Amino acid sequence: MEATRLSSTKPIQALKPKETVSFDEDPMTKVPDALPLPLYLTNAVFFTLFFSVVYFLLSSWREKIRTSTPLHVVNSSEIVAILAFFASCIYLMVFFGIDFVQSLVFQPSSGVWISEDEEENEVLLCKEDARKVPCGQALDCSLPPSPPQAPIESAQKVFEEKAVTVLTEEDEEIIKSVVAGTIPSYSLESKLGDCKRAAAIRREALQRLTGKSLAGLPLEGLDYESILGQCCEMPIGYVQIPVGIAGPLLLNGREFSVPMATTEGCLVASTNRGCKAIHLSGGATSVLLKDGMTRAPVVRFGTAKRAADLKLYLEDPNNFETLSVVFNRSSRFGRLQGIKCAIAGKNLYMRFTCSTGDAMGMNMVSKGVQNVLDFLQTDFPDMDVLGISGNFCSDKKPAAVNWIEGRGKSVVCEAIIKGDVVRKVLKTSVESLVELNMLKNLTGSAMAGVLGGFNAHASNIVSAVYIATGQDPAQNVESSHCITMMEAVNDGKDLHVSVTMPSIEVGTVGGGTQLASQSACLNLLGVKGASKEVPGANSRTLATIVAGAVLAGELSLMSALAAGQLVKSHMKYNRSNKDVSKASS
Fold first, then answer.
1. Which pathway features in its UniProt record (predicted)?
2. What is the pLDDT of residues 442-478, one digit of tens each?
3. Catalytic residue at 396?
4. Which of 291, 472, 478, 554 is catalytic?
5. CA gap 398, 391 in Å, rounded
6. What pTM was estimated for this model as a whole?
7. Rounded CA gap, 243 and 562, in Å?
8. Catalytic residue among 18, 30, 290, 396
């Protein structure tokens, strides 16, 4: 918000109240509202009057010239006509500048505060007011009328609450030191002991260094203490992403309202339509197939034979119990499930898989792997650990090993959509959906040589749910591995649709899940925090919800494509007619 940023290099002037304005006067009254007739009728009256009196006066003066009567000799009707002429001229001249007239008449009530820099404060107040215009709704893009202006006391209170953060002399000295490079920007939190103040100072120093304004990037409204050492380093604000709701999604007999954080128009509306089709058809069913996070360190030996010796040792079932005890020391939730190895010359890649409770579990499995590596050094002292992650995991990259073996939660979700629902809600036919799915999601994807991308837009839904619930957005890469299947059932009357997702990586504790907004979205789904009854139950439920939402999104988009509605819907709901560059934060 413009009013909360630290944009000025000069000391901020104190704002003083203007002279009192009477509350009996309506500050929202406009010139057109004061006219006895509607504006268009008033305009018609004055246009008619103007041309009528002009015609009357010209006719009268022509008759005087013909009869040699002096023009300055006028009768009462001509006097009235002349007055009407001047009145209509005045009205017509100011008609196109009516806003200018209004600003002159009502100038005393246009502002509540004055300062030594009046223009700057007026701009701030205007931008503050701009926030009161609501965004377009999902399916009804018309803007509602502006709300009435708040009383002056309320406006003063709001302005004081959202006032510019004042820089003290000490802050100014710190900013100058950061700009000069004598104080590292990353050390502000530890030196000041106030995370929000550190963010404000870093933000101002950045603006002075770059000469670029951060007016559209909010600073207020975030608990900076909660992200320290966990979510983000060197913060200067936060990005706003709207959150929409799709649903209710009827999944395994329960209804879920699915939060989706996105800036893509039509995405939430489309997923919502898919949820409706699933609900009207009796709901969807999801099954968790696997649950295990992976980490794969890479080690090197002097010879390929020594690498093979360690591979055989790790894959020997007789050694698994010993390795499990060493691995499981790192956490009360992390439990080793298996180890798979691959050799490339004298290099060995060891893929550890373990359960992680309700956490996504990357840190948990990494600590367990480190314990095992330390243990192995005793029997394999010639082992050179090159990296605790050798990309055989594989994290944040499309990989066949995840597509085949799975990573995180492996889920399959299915539903049978009734034929009449396909026709009435999805506006297409079972035959068209089955054919399009085969040619697009299966054959087309194979022609493109995709890896795990046998779907229409699974990553759209996965990303939106991940951002809303505090997951790692980068893990959308492997979490969006999905194959969508469709076939006609019940003698071709109904549609069986399913999504199989082998590597959904989610958690309900740790990372971004503890932030207020993301925690609220998890709470909406009923999976906030760790499960008190069964460890890992909340994260597993969240994975099935992700798969269910993907099923709804796939069903709706494929139907739009089959019915030829995609371009039409995006042109209607995904094109903004508002100049967002002028929108205030």
1. Metabolic intermediate biosynthesis; (R)-mevalonate biosynthesis; (R)-mevalonate from acetyl-CoA: step 3/3
2. 999 999 999 999 999 999 999 999 999 999 999 999 9
3. yes
4. 472
5. 11
6. 0.71
7. 28
8. 396
